[in-house]
Amino acid sequence: MITSSKRTPLTYLVHATVLFLVIMWTIPTAGLFISSIRDKDQLSVSGWWTALSTSTQQLVTRANDPSTQTLEGGLYLIQGNIFDGAPGEVTKFGSSSLKPDAFDVGTKVELKRGQTLQVMKNGDYTFASPTEWKGSRSSRIFYTAETPPRFTLDNYREVLSAEGLGQSFINSLTVTIPATIIPILVAAFAAYALAWMSFPGRALLLAAVVGLLVVPLQMSLIPLLKSYNLIGEFFGVGSKTYVGIWLAHTGFGLPLAIYLLRNYIAGLPSEIIESARVDGASDFDIFRKIVLPLSFPALASFAIFQFLWVWNDLLIAMVFLGNDAEHLVLTGQLRELLGSRGGNWEILTASAFITIIIPVCVFFGLQRYLVRGLLAGSVK
Amino acid sequence: MKKSLLSMAVAVTLSTNAVYAADLMFTPGEDSRFNWASYDALKSVDLSGETVSAFGPWMGDEKANFERVIAYFEKATGAKVNYSGSDSFEQQIVIDTQAGSAPNISIFPQPGLAADLASKGALTPLSNKVKEGVKKDYAAGQSWVDLATFKDSKGDDNLYGVFYRADLKSLVWYSPDNFLDAGYDVPETMEDLKDLTKQIVADGGTPWCIGLGSGAATGWPATDWVEDMLLRTQPAAVYDGWVTNDVKFDDPRIVDAIKEFGWFARNDAYVDGGAGAVASTDFRDSPKGLFQSPPKCYMHRQASFIPAFFPEGTTLGLDADFFYFPSYASKNLGNPVLGAGTLVSITNDSKGAREFIEFLRSPIAHELWMAQTGFLSAHLGANPELYSSDAARKQGEILRYATTFRFDGSDLMPGKIGAGSFWTGMVDYTSGKDAKTVAEDIQKTWNALK
């Protein structure tokens, strides 16, 4: 046995492995986070790992248009700043797309018809011409710039200020909370019965429940919706209601819940339950006073599973709740923000961190009980 | 503690929840360029208290644009229209129609899917009046009617929808400044385009940006290329036969069209990143190369919607422009145009749904979206002056005056081909597989369907 006081190479190996795994698991999250606070134009051209250092970029900008020209000392000038107030440093510039880095910063370059262009290190540029600038098409300036890292909260602002986001947050909670509590409630009773009450066909029933685990839920979408339509017609309500989606999630979550909880509850020491029976406790008393408190860790871990699954779900919500504004869940709302053809990275990354808030709260809230429950079981 | 956290979250989100009102963009009767007569005619229809549910593929900005058009229908008739959009429209509409909870109006991005649902009896046929109306009002009206005419469950032909919002596919996008800097002219014929491609390479540049990546739909931009090349190398009749598989996929004429696409896409010198990058570049990212410094490429062939993916601040007409993807001068096939469109059908019949279809085929519904962004119309009664940009007007004209208009073939083919093996086949082809083998594989999938 390895004791904690004496460090063997194996402990170091264990520590190194743990460290390695932690880093491996955190890198994607870190990348996502850095991406979410990056400028959206930078996001599409370079990776998040380049975000922390000053980068050399070749860029192009359009000068102010000829209507802004001024007359100074016989020359018509068009002036401005490439960076428009943002920090940056020009190293090279050019006036044609063929040679974007032809000139060193500060030099005065002859263009056609006696016109000149000068670009300074801080981004100030001057076009000068002996004759008046004509037309509405302004010239382009190509430049190579050292751009310091630039971070912004614009992505978050864009997601949070989206119309209907608040409503969809509440919709998601309305779907998720009952859809987590109902299956746990049902599954706990069922698991107790399957573990500690003997009745004919118990093993067969359990096998059937386990068998249900392999049914893909996509298969049941149409038949289920059909029966909802019939029932809805009978009661004179629509087929897409909150009750409908709670029941759907309950149904899809139950097999796993029953299976997990039964295994845990069946593993409880039989002496406790038998002595309770001898003392005259009914099945309901045993369930409520002994089994339920003891199986809290299992309940909590399943609650985390179910909550995450329902919270992140899009398919079932779209099918059983619909797409209209009053019923749109958070995942649906965020997808809507992406537009018809998708591809808006910055929204994806920022919304990932916004949707994660509630599941993280749930996880940390329940994790306390989870740890306590585990410890209570181990140091009996 | 958990409780207080939750109530906090609810409070925060409640405060961000905005109430929005549907105001009319343009006051009816004010701007004389609009066809207000068709709006006034709508006022005689009384639908107060009725609700029309509509479901389609448009989300985000497109949804907002469409809702602004709907507002006029609501104002005139008193009906309430609930539009919702989904990016998995194709899957959801199948579920909803089979389960019997279909919306009143469905907006199909692909007629192939609508044909499928029509054969199962999920769509409601439209009246002869609509058919005659479309024939008369639309440019190349008969072809728009044919595209929306499907067989029902008994095998009879019926008109099942009205096209609203067209897309133009035969466009090449470029940066006029870059062309000016390098001294290139816009090519008028396919021969010129090929010469220009060679010229750019000789000058040390890269002519094309091509990206086929699109998540699960990777490969579709190449199907548009092949369709365009087929229309430019063979008469339209071959194209029509190919769509219905009367002309086999591995027919030498089709294989040649695939090779024509390969002439551009499979030459390392012609494509940014080399031929190997074609399949892995996302179609949304590939046009960005036009605007980089130095330019990564000079031309990009893509449909009329692509400016949505140009870098922020790109002005159409100034920073970016387009030209018609030219046809061969030597082949005498006219100027064929490839396009697409969204089909509006009734999936759950009601008076409101029928009136809504009537509204969408009236000029005012087209004009109201034309005056916003991202809308092309083949409606002859819609005033082209109302297009919000010159670029859109130019595209509208290409669409209106096309000698041959053909609908995106992959959208008309069965889903397993047009949204399956054709896509993957094109990815295989750009990755180096032989054109003949690819075509044979696709034909095999098609044979298996029969």
From TrEMBL, chain A:
The lineage of its organism: Bacteria, Pseudomonadati, Pseudomonadota, Gammaproteobacteria, Oceanospirillales. It is found in: Cell membrane. Belongs to the binding-protein-dependent transport system permease family. This is Carbohydrate ABC transporter permease. The keyword Transmembrane applies. The chain crosses the membrane at residues 12-34, 175-196, 203-222, 242-261, 290-311, 347-366. InterPro entries: MetI-like, MetI-like_sf. It comes from the Bacteria. Residues 169-366 form the ABC transmembrane type-1 domain. Keywords: Cell membrane, Membrane, Transmembrane, Transmembrane helix, Transport. Its main location: membrane. GO terms for cellular component: plasma membrane. It is a multi-pass membrane protein. GO terms for biological process: transmembrane transport. It holds the Pfam family BPD_transp_1. The keyword Transport applies.
Automatic annotation (TrEMBL), chain B:
One of its GO terms (cellular component) is periplasmic space. Its main location: periplasm. Keywords: Signal, Transport. It is found in: Periplasm. It comes from the Bacteria. Residues 1-21 form the signal peptide. Transmembrane segments: none annotated. Belongs to the bacterial solute-binding protein 1 family. This is Carbohydrate ABC transporter substrate-binding protein. It comes from Marinomonas transparens.
